[in-house]
Amino acid sequence: MFGIVATLALAPTAPPLDAVAEASVAETRFGDDVQRVDVADDAARQTIVHQSYTASTGPQTLVQGGTNLDWAKLVLVEGGWPMTDENITFMMRWMRQENGADNWWNRNNPLNNGQGSGGGSGLGSYATLVDAAYYAAENLKSGRYPAVDAALQRGDSADATAQAIWASPWASSHYGYGTHWSSRPYEIIEAPASAWGR
Description:
about 200 residues, mainly alpha
């Protein structure tokens, strides 16, 4: 320990920074290339404003995610509806009612949608889940489901949107007007990459 202390005591002290800067300027010859800025004593300090920005989740990001949660969000993006927690919760519950959580991508038709699937009454299939999201949004915005479209546009209540789908002609069972509708927390489950067309 004595050796370390003695070594430190022998180390030279660094010169003050002002002295280093002055020596550097004195040794450098700038000639006429020196710039000088004079600031008035009464100049006001300016505040720098940092602009904020937001980012939205795009379809490519959702496709790469590959889960039922990503698909629910993709339908909202395709429909131009706000991506609120309430809208996402409604979509996840609805998908579970149609195909169950463990096989939500069944026939690449999570909502058993008949529009564009080649099988009326929701029994058809789509080439990919991306197609299914497009056609689900198109069908919901078609004018046949105005209360569902309006509830999704508000995005403020999963329960109100569920009531709108129950009252609509989407399912002939009307989900038992809520008696066949689960409100338990949803599970996030990934579909096979092939279902997404990747």
